């Protein structure tokens, strides 16, 4: 993918991840650490009971991380499929005898379209992730 398109996509995704981290993940991390500290304060419990308590505290955060990772992987896979389609179109155009500038122009337009389409998917993906994070106990 052309550097400008790649930079644009990276910036948009980075903004989304920063927003999720700030507004949701940090809150969950705070709960997880406070819960774990409460487990450690239970001086009469055995080591295994405290360990199990801490595992329960960490479960929601692990679910949240898995959820975010899964959504980002699906998004990346969709974007990769789109850019692979661009590569195929460019190769077909080149194989038909087109000159390099025409192939580069096609590739740039096609990748720009992929980025535009996927940037437009970010708000719905963000809503879906937020809803999923909010549903984790």
TrEMBL record:
<comment type="similarity">
    <text>Belongs to the FAM136 family.</text>
</comment>
<dbReference type="Pfam" id="PF05811">
    <property type="entry name" value="DUF842"/>
</dbReference>
<dbReference type="InterPro" id="IPR008560">
    <property type="entry name" value="DUF842_euk"/>
</dbReference>
<protein>
    <recommendedName>
        <fullName>Protein FAM136A</fullName>
    </recommendedName>
</protein>
